[in-house]
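Exercise 7b. Backbone tokens:
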């Protein structure tokens, strides 16, 4: 496995990174990070439990919210092992196979969340544009089929990632740029040709960005429909039903677009800025989404308070 020339020694361990310059306080930084993970996992599990046990919430809007919670849980649990090892135990090493597996799940759940957010924008458009036909168009059976399609599509789309990365040869460089493994980060360590990885990764990024384009188009039609409503009060009421989803879209897409742009086009990028944006991308959406939906959705809020015996 090792050649005589040290410059061509194949890497058997990758090294992740915490926050450069703050290694001496990683243990203290781990406290808020662990708290955020606990709140995110508890919040999303609560959302899933409430929707599962309350028959009044067995409706398309809440099924999509369940899909969002599952995606957030997947993202949290995928990054949790390496984040804890780095900040709690100061253990930065990770085997290539474990790294490839982690980036598969992170990219898979990221694409799944993107698809769910697109479906939720379509749900809001139908609810506002065709309120009388809404329940007949979006039946529970159709929502279940959409969820299954999203799951299969997301996993199949990123399935080539670990296999194409495994075919590459890694030598000389072993230090990654984040606290977890990402496809675009790992492939840059290769000392063999990574052209296929680059273009397929770019294709996957375009597929995900196409979701954001369709979300924008959906909201253009939503605004057009809302502007056609005569009553100012009814217009505000219709727009208020979209606030939670808009917040979820912004906290998901803003960090991921910034991170992808810095990875692919940034020549003089700040390593600390990239690490912070990457950590925000995986920590904030799973943490904030349950809070936003509990605060802005009355039915969810009342059922959660009831389950927590705070009624």
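Sequence design result:
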């Amino acid at each position: 496995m090792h050649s005589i020339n040290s410059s061509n020694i194949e890497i058997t361990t990758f090294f992740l990174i915490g926050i450069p310059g703050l290694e001496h306080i990683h243990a203290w930084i781990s406290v808020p990070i662990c708290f955020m993970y606990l709140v995110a996992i508890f919040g999303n599990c609560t959302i899933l439990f409430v929707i599962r046990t309350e028959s009044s919430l067995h409706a398309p809007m809440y099924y999509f919210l369940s899909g969002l919670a599952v995606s957030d849980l997947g993202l949290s649990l995928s990054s949790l092992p390496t984040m804890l090892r780095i900040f709690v135990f100061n253990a930065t090493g990770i085997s290539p196979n474990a790294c490839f597996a982690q980036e598969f799940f992170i990219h898979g759940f990221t694409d799944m969340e993107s698809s769910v957010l697109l479906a939720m924008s379509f749900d809001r458009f139908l609810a506002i544009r065709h309120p009388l036909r809404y329940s007949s168009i979006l039946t529970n059976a159709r929502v279940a089929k959409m969820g299954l399609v999203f799951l299969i599509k997301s996993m199949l789309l990123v399935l080539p990632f670990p296999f194409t990365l495994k075919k590459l040869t890694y030598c000389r460089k072993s230090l990654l740029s984040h606290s977890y493994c990402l496809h675009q980060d790992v492939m840059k360590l290769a000392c063999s040709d990574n052209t296929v990885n680059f273009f397929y990764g770019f294709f996957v990024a375009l597929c995900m960005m196409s979701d954001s384009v369709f979300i924008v188009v959906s909201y253009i039609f939503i605004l057009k429909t809302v502007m056609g409503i005569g009553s100012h009060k009814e217009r505000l009421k219709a727009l208020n039903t979209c606030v939670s989803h808009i917040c979820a879209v912004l906290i998901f897409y803003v960090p991921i677009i910034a991170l992808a742009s810095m990875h692919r086009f940034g020549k003089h990028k700040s390593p600390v800025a990239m690490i912070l944006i990457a950590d925000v991308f995986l920590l904030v959406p799973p943490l904030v989404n349950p809070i936003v939906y509990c605060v802005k959705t009355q039915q969810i809020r009342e059922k959660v308070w009831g389950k927590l015996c705070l009624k």
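Instructor comment: The first strand starts at residue 14 and ends at 15. The beta strands are 14-15, 93-94.
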